[in-house]
Amino acid sequence: MAGGTTLENTPTWTVAVVSFCFISISLGLERLIHLLTAWLKKLGKKALIEALEKLKSEMMLLGFISLLLAATQGPISKICISHKVAETMLPCRKITSITETQLADSSSPAEESAIPQPAIYDYCFSKGKVSLISQEGIGQLHIFIFVLAAMHVLYSVLAMALGNAKMRVWKIWEKETQTIEYQVRNDPNGFRYTRETSFGRRHVNSSTETPFLLWTKCFFRQFFSSLAKVDYMTLRHGFIATHFSPSGNVKFDFQKYIEQSLEEDFKVVVGISPPLWFIVVIFLLVNVRGMHIYLWISVLPLILILALGTKLEVIVAKMAIKLGTENAITRGTPFVHPNDELFWFGHPGFLLHFLHLTLFMNAYEIAFFLWITYEFGLRSCYHDKIELIILRIVLAVTVQVLCSYITLPLYALVTQMGSHYKKTALEEQTAKLLKAWHEDVRKKQRQKLPQDKPISPRNVGPSRSKAGQKTDQADAQAQVS
C-alpha cells in the first residue's frame, strides 16, 4: 500500500499484539451484550430485549459499512476527476500542498523522483486529474460514521434513562389512587361543575379562548409546569374508563403501562432508519464553506423539540376545553375521551418519529463536532469562530435537557390518549388482572361454602335406601301386572 509499510516488513509481534487487542475488545463487547440480554430476560423486559436486538443489528450494519470502506478504499481512491470538478462545493478554503506545487513546477525526471509521491496520487496526477477521495479521506469518513452511530445510541439511552428518572414521581401518584382518601375525593356519586374541577381550572380560562393564546400559553407552560399531578390523574382515569371499565374503578397500574409502552418505543428510537442515513448524506452534501450549515443543524433540533412539547401541551388543553364544552357538570373524576384526531395527521405514532428525528439530529451535531475536533483540532476551518462553537455546544446540551426532563415525560403520558392502546404493553398487566379476578372468585366461593348444607355419608345412605326400596316396589308391581 502506498505511503506505508506492508505486513511483509512489519514485526510479527506488533501484528500479534494489535490483533490480540482488537479480538479481546470484540469478545468482551459480545460477552457484555450476552450478560445484558440474560439480565433483561430475568427482569422480563421483553421490549428492551427487542431494543437490544435492534442495536445488535445496527452494529452489524455499521460493521458491514466499515468492511466495505476498508475493502474498497484502494479502488475508490483510483477514481479520478478533473481539477475543476474537485474544487466545487468545498467545505474549507483550498490549500495547495507543497508536494503538489513542487510536482506542478518540476520539469526534470530527477526532481520528480526526489519528491516523495504517493502511488495513488501519481496514478491520477499522471492523467492530469485528482482522486475522487483519498484513502486518508475514506479513513476519516470511516471514523465519522462510527462516532455518529455511537453518539446516537448514547443520546437515546441517556434521554430514556433521564426521562424515566423524572417519571419516578408517577409511582407515588399511582399508589395514591389505591388509597381511601383518593376514592373519597373522587366519589363517582359526587357532582361538580367541570370548570371548577382542578383539571378545568388548570386548562380552561380566558387565555385559551383563541388558538393563538392557547398555543402561546402552552409554549411557556412546558418550561414551568409541563405536567401536573391533576393531569396524570385525569388522563389515567380517561384511559382506564375507555379501555377497561366505564366507572374507572379498576386496579390498573397505569404508570407501569406507560413504562412498558416507553420501552416499546425505545426499540424504534435506538435505531438509525434508512431515511436518517439519507439525511446524513444530505448534511454532508450541503456542508459548503460560508453557509454555516452546522449552526442551523444545531438550531433545528431545538425548534423541533419546542414544537413537540407545545403540541403535547395543546392536546391536554384541548381535552379539557372539549370536556367543558360537552359537559357543564361532571360526575366524579373528569372523564376525558382518548381521540386520535387531536394528534398530527390523526396518528399519535407520528410524534415518535418526530422525537426520533430530534434526538438523531442532536446526536449528529455532537458527533460531527467531536469528529472534527479529533481529526483537525479546534482551530480548523470548521471551527473558524469560537463563539459559534460555544453556541453549538450550549444548544446541544439544552436540547438534551429539554428532551429528557420535559418533552419525553409529556410524550410518554399524552400519547396514551390515542384511540388505541399498545397490546404488547398490556399483556403482563392483563394477566395480573385476570389472576386477581380469579382469586376474588375463589375467595367468594370459599366464603359461601360453609353456609351450604354439608354432604355426609349419613345423609347419602338413607336416601339411597329409600330409593332402592322404591325401585324394588316398582319392579314387583311390574312383575304382578
UniProtKB/TrEMBL annotation:
One of its GO terms (molecular function) is calmodulin binding. Residues 441-481 are annotated as: Disordered. Residues 466-481 have a biased composition (Polar residues). GO terms for biological process: defense response. GO terms for cellular component: membrane. Belongs to the MLO family. Its main location: membrane. The C-terminus contains a calmodulin-binding domain, which binds calmodulin in a calcium-dependent fashion. This is MLO-like protein. It is a multi-pass membrane protein. It comes from the Eukaryota. The keyword S-adenosyl-L-methionine does not apply. May be involved in modulation of pathogen defense and leaf cell death. It comes from Papaver somniferum. The keyword RNA-binding does not apply. The chain crosses the membrane at residues 12-38, 141-162, 266-287, 293-312, 350-374, 389-414. It is found in: Membrane. Keywords: Calmodulin-binding, Membrane, Pathogenesis-related protein, Plant defense, Transmembrane, Transmembrane helix.
